[in-house]
Amino acid sequence: MGAWQPKTQKCSTCGIELQLNKCPECGRSPLASARDARKSLNKYSLLPAPGLLGSVLGYIVYPPLDAGPVLAIGLCVFSVPLLLQLASTLRKRLSEDVGWLRAVYAYSSLALMLLALLLLLNGRLDTSPPNAVRSTVIRKTVTRRKSALTYLITVSSWRPGRSEEEFAVGLRTFNRAGVGKTVTVELHPGFFGLPWSGAISPE
Hints:
- By secondary structure, this protein is of the alpha+beta class.
- It is built from 5 helices and 7 strands; from the N terminus they run ββααααβββαββ.
- Strands 5-4-3-6-7 form a 5-stranded antiparallel sheet. It has a two-stranded antiparallel sheet with strand order 1-2.
- β4 and β5 form a beta hairpin.
- α1 runs parallel beside α4 (94-124), α2 packs parallel to α4 and α3 (67-90) runs antiparallel to α4 (94-124).
């Protein structure tokens, strides 16, 4: 027996077509309830997690020289499905929108996986000899996010149109790198043309 489809009938008084929203046999609505929609979307919201973790791994192992745009793209792709689901919830249309929201989560997952592969393969397949660049430390900064500390050093840029370059380093490198002193930055062109930085060595 095929799935029941909502039927329409005309009002005997004004002639306006009305749609039956419940099955005449079981009395259930053909549209998923908001609770069922949330349960379904909670499962789909886990789809972007592997791509997000892969992107973070690629960012740490092969940090791109221009990290800002990469981070912005990753955060936007990850946030779009969540924001759309929130908007649908506030509009009380979650039951009607559940279908295309699932598709958005799936596309977001695919995009993050491609970003992770780009970062990882860009570094892993890069066999070009690195280029060593010497620069001067301008400042040192320690940032705290929850219980984790991030050590950043800012050096004078060697690229035209830029004055500074910022790198996340380990505690040992952070302590050895003094403001006003010289550091050597190992640069790689990247297999896909996305430059990334390697070891940073204080002199």
